[in-house]
Amino acid sequence: MITEILFSALVMTTPLVLASLGGLIHRSSGIVNVGLDGMMLLGALVALILASGGNWAVALVGAALSAGVAGWLMSLGITRLSANEIIVGLGLNIAIAGAVRFYLKAAYGSSGNLRLPDVSRLPKIDLPLPGPFGAVLSGHSVLTWIAWALVPLTAWVLTRTALGLRLRACGTSAVSSAAIGLHPKRMREGAGFVAGALSGLAGAYLSIGVVGLFNEGITGGRGFIALAAFYFGANRPWATAACALLFGIFDAVQIRLQGRGFPAELIQTLPYIMVCVVLLLLGLAARRRAEGKAASHG
Amino acid sequence: MKSLQAALTILFPIAIVLLIGAAALLAAGHDPVAVYADLMTEAFGGTRRIAASLSAATPLIFTGLAAAVAFRVGVFTVGAEGSLYVGALMAAWLGFTLTGLNGWLLAPLCLLAGTVAGTLWMLPPGLMKARLGIDEIVTTLMLNFIAIGLTTWLVNGPLLAPGAANSSTPQVVETARLTRLMPPSTLTTGFLIALALLFAYAFWQRRRVGGYETLIGGLAPRFAGASGIDMPGLMLRMLLLSGAIAGLGGALQVLGPIGRFVAGFSTGYGFTGIAVAILARGNPFGILIGAVLFGGLSTAGATIQLFSDVPIEIVNILQGLIMIFAVADFGLRGWFARRAGRQAANGGATP
Amino acid sequence: MSEMKQADAARGPRLGGQGLSKSFGPLMANDRIDFVARRGTIHAIVGGNGAGKSTLMNILQGLLTPDAGTVLVNGAPVAFRSPNDAIRAGIGMVHQEFTLIPGLTLLENLILGAEPRRGLGAIDRQAAEARAAALAELAGVRIDWSLTEEDAPVHMRQAVEILRLIYRGADVLILDEPTAVLAPPQIRELLALMRNLREKGNTILFISHKLDEVLAVADEVTVLRSGRVVVSRPAEGLDKAELARLMTGEPVEAPTAKPALPGAAVLELDRIGAGGEGAVAFQDFSLTLRAGEIVGIAGVAGNGQDEIVGLVSGMMPAARGAIRLAGQDITRHSTRERRALGLAYLSPDRKKEGLCLDASIADNLIASHQHKPRFAAQGFLKPRAIADFAAERVAAFEIKCASPRQPVRALSGGNQQKVAMARELYDNPRVLLACQPTRGVDIRGIAAIHEEILGFRDSGGAVLLISEELEELVQLSDRIVTIYSGRITGEFPRGGAGMERIGRTMLGEVAA
């Protein structure tokens, strides 16, 4: 029972880790990305269509590229046309959802669903681990392991490389960064591509990793949960991944408890409530700090 | 000059979006001109269709206005969707519980309850913004999901209509339902309330001290503060007003076209309302036009779907893109500002 | 390049200007400026506000193109098209607003944009630390490179700003009022750092109006006044009195000011203290302002001016003490309540706090008065009355505009400030809190604003005048109070002391 829940928690966590890392990178560059959900949806559809050609690797690349371009275009709107990032993100979600349905109708004559023959599913990795470890860790798809490998990689890039340093600098102060010759706009656009690409992979995991088909509700709002995770993680990759894991566990537990009288809809709102609570606590702490400073001066 | 600027800033993004939509239609093998013409005919060709479009526009007027009143003072709420849901649920609950009450009493009571619920829903983010300076965008976005989850749970459990399979409450008492203006269309007196609200807003904006204070508060918050305007309090009040308007809109949907609360009854009214408000730049007449446009698009889309193979999902693409391009700055404003500056210089305003 | 530097005779010309001129409309900001800063020297550029210093710096940095004349690099004429050209020529500038990035450590801020690397784009931390340590040693300063920007003390941040320029290859350092934000011991440290960098062959352009500091470090001095070079000469043999005279020209006597007839006390600050984040602990501050007098606050920026403004206007809560306006305790009153009791406030930040640039002149004129019966009844505005009022104020204050419905943004700086004045002086306020009332205003506008302030005083108003322009303070104030580090260091009646003496007490010397 516990091992099953943990196994499915890791499954639920995978798309969240991918998308929230993307959101984290974009946010480090200075943009709050509300469009992760739409890019995930796009990645899910593209992956399924390409995987039907028989190669899951091609499907992953295609999902990452297409959603990456969406993220890049979104960033262009924000950096070059100074559009509000939140509105653009929400608009992108609506537009992509529309485009996906439009395409399904135009190309397949179907409304909202797509089932294709010969879909090449993501391969699963079996680990010869004993007992409960094997039950939890064995049998996950490659993308799960890639997602977790990306966590230390992201942390390393952000803190230890020139690129990460510049990204953080541009995210904190575009004016000061531009003054010493960096290109904050290009940085944000590049980060937007990465955010899109990672969300696209998250979508691909849902369509060709978990279920093997596509429907328009496949993301289940996970793009917004990812938003909650990177808000919660405050730009720290490990903390963000830990939040994603927490939300993944919620998800797994909630699926288990469904039909046993537990209010699934309420459990699903927990991540969102937590974001509000965290923001409230941060705000209270900031005020206490300011008051403390005032008191020590007085 | 000013109206030209207003027209251009509204029409330019729409034109771009229509072009992109046309490209998508062409790629899918459809004649964009024909599709757009069909859409226009289905939306506004004839009284019945116009009535349907106005009915669809009604909730958008409320959410658009809800967004506009908050944006006016610089509060960037995206929370109309949440207030709409809780307002609708509250109205539905009273509407099927207080069956003994006279319709003339019950209907206003339901509307009031919806308004209050929508207002209270914005209290936490409002207080967080006013007292602690916590970013309202994220909190209101999160509250939308919470409202949707909460109401869905309620109508699947405690408030589920007996015997009903889908997630909805029982029907509201018939006597509390709003009058249909042009049966069989779902256009109700709710639309008239929306219009009245728009007029009230137009008047308030220009003639009330509050309209003046929100104007300068939104344009120059520090100036407003130095002039003695209590900015945090004003922001809180406008966010609550925004919630009230959205809550009333939800209640009117329940007493109007739907007759009960159904989970997922809003097709993103709150989000479309943001697009409406931004496109209108807060102008009440613009909100009306925008809401009717979006409302017309969605009803036309729904009907065309019934008898043609045109991928009418193009309507969703157009909605999302309009939202994006409505907030984009194509340099038009800068261009107008430079022109205005030159004119001022010629008008003798040099030092 | 560096060999050339070695070969070049020490003290050859490094950066200069020849006939540099730049005008903005009718204002000649720079008028045929000639100067030469020699290699390995500290060259001070001295002048009051509006003397043309910032225009000159912008030209030297490639941010502005001169109308006439040329910039000289190593004695040869060059034309900078962008700041990058200046950086390539080895010229870097430290602005008054720091540009270090919060969240990054000082080390990261140092190397940002030119990081030493190992493979895979990874930062070579050891190399970076070694370079940082070498730079600190060269400059003779102690820096804890692992501190983040927000945790580092201000003098350390400033040292990093300067060292970052050297790290990036500059050997000409333009420092704009670098001591404005520092306390005296830190100032001594900064001056030592400047000397050390000079010894290593760097050239420093030191922009300042603090005469002691200039005389302490500068090898040569160029004095600007009204856009022109008054003198450009070696510092040796200059004394402070002489330098002050060169900077200000002949002392200007206030021609229009009648003697004040002060009445009863209207504003009393009684041992008030502020909390907040400023470097200055502002406490136990007492000051009394009487009707019919102008009290000027003189001090270097950041020595308590913001606290006085915040506490009097009600935008900053008082941590202790009491403020009384016309006998009423207003310590806990909101800004609106204070205004209702007769407080008027002319903000130093005209664009953001003093006016709403995108609203009409009329809307700006009624701000803070919008509730008064003349403009509104039961919350309904009276458009006709507002229009009449606007027309009346525009005429009375000679605001040049096409119509009161025009946005304020379309007006010139002087006319914008007149709009703010016309609003604040309406309805007979008791106290006018006037901050930098003539900042960014041309000469004619300044005269008009000064006249309004004096007129307000003559009609019995009390003015608390805060200004960075010592000349303006001397001209207008019936009393000048000097502040330093949040404390009053001296008080001078009109004509009671020369600018030089007031300047000294502004710098912390307590007046006997």
Average residue pLDDT of chain A: 89
| Total number of domains of chain A | 1
- Label the overall shape of chain A: globular
Q: How many structural domains does the protein architecture of chain B include?
A: 1
Quickly name the level 1 CATH class of chain A: Mainly Alpha
Q: Helical content of chain A, roughly? A: over 70%
How many separate helices of chain B?
15
Describe the protein.
The complex is a heterotrimer of chains A (298), B (351) and C (512). Chain A has 298 residues and is mainly α. Chain A has one domain: ABC transporter involved in vitamin B12 uptake, BtuC, CATH 1.10.3470. Helices cover 77% and strands 3% of the residues of chain A. Chain A has a two-stranded antiparallel sheet with strand order 1-4. Chain B has a single domain, classed as Orthogonal Bundle (ABC transporter involved in vitamin B12 uptake, BtuC), CATH 1.10.3470. Chain B has 15 helices and no strands. Chain B is globular, with a radius of gyration of 21 Å. The C terminus of chain B is likely disordered. In chain C, helix 7 links the parallel strand 7 and strand 8. Chain C is globular and about 70 Å long. The longest helix of chain C has 16 residues. Chain C has 18 helices and 22 strands. With 512 residues, chain C is α/β, with parallel strands linked by helices. The relative contact order of chain C is 0.10. Chains in contact: A-B, A-C, B-C.
What keywords describe this structure?
B: 351 residues; mainly alpha; globular; disordered C terminus; C: 512 residues; Rossmann fold; 3 domains; six-stranded mixed β-sheet; 18 helices; 22 strands
Task: List the topology elements.
The complex is a heterotrimer of chains A (298), B (351) and C (512).
Chain A (H helix, E strand, L loop, with lengths): L1 H27 L7 H16 L4 H25 L4 H24 L4 E2 L9 E2 L5 H7 L2 E2 H19 L1 H11 L1 H6 L4 H28 L2 E2 L6 H11 L4 H21 L6 H34 L1
Antiparallel strand pairs in A: 1-4, 2-3
Chain B lengths: L1 H26 L4 H13 L2 H26 L7 H18 L5 H19 L1 H10 L3 H21 L32 H19 L1 H11 L1 H6 L4 H28 L10 H12 L3 H24 L6 H14 L4 H15 L5
Chain C lengths: L1 H6 L5 E12 L2 E12 L3 E5 L6 H8 L7 E6 L2 E3 L4 H6 L2 E4 L11 H6 L13 H15 L14 H14 L4 E5 L7 H16 L3 E6 L2 H7 L2 E6 L2 E7 L5 H9 L16 E10 L10 E6 L3 E5 L6 H9 L4 E8 L2 E2 L5 H6 L2 E4 L3 H5 L6 H6 L9 E2 L2 E2 L1 H14 L16 H12 L6 E5 L7 H16 L3 E5 L3 H7 L2 E6 L2 E7 L5 H8 L6
Helix pairs in contact in C: 15-16
